[in-house]
Amino acid sequence: MEKCRLMGFFHRLHDTKLHAVTLQKKVWDTLISIGRQECLTGQEEDIM
Questions:
Q1: 9 compared with 25, residue with greater pLDDT
Q2: Which runs of E-coded beta strand occur in the chain?
Q3: pLDDT tens-digit map of 4-16
Q4: How far apart, in whole angstroms, are the C-alpha atoms of residue 28 and residue 22?
Q5: Quick one: pLDDT at residue 30?
Q6: In whole numbers, what is the pLDDT of the chain averaged over residues?
Q7: What domain of life is recorded for the organism (predicted)?
Q8: What whole-number distance in Å separates Cα of residue 32 and Cα of residue 30?
Q9: What is the dihedral of CA 25, 31, 34, 36, to 10 degrees?
Q10: Which contacts of 1-6 are long-range, i.e. CB under 8 A and separated by 24 or more positions?
Q11: Half-sphere exposure of 40 toward its Cβ, with a 13 Å CA cutoff?
């Protein structure tokens, strides 16, 4: 029973891996853009 459930879990994991990779890329792109914005605002604050 446990083994069967585990196999099903890995099967779903394999199916969602591609989706997870694209999702991860979106998250990274978002984090990087937010980081850039914070960096820019931080520099502006330093100038003022």
A1: 25
A2: none
A3: 888 888 888 777 7
A4: 10
A5: 93
A6: 81
A7: Bacteria
A8: 5
A9: -80
A10: none
A11: 6
Separation of alpha carbons 31 and 34, rounded Å: 5
Tokens standing for residue 45: 């604050």
Token couple for 43: 């520099």
* Amino acid present at 40: L
Residue 41 CA to residue 3 CA, distance in Å, equals 52
pLDDT of 33 strictly over 90: yes
pLDDT band at 26 (very low <50, low <70, confident <90, very high): very high
| Angle (CA) 33 27 43, round 5° | 20
Instruction: Give the type of residue at 25.
Output: K
Q: What is the rounded distance in angstroms from the CA atom of residue 29 to the CA atom of residue 7?
A: 33
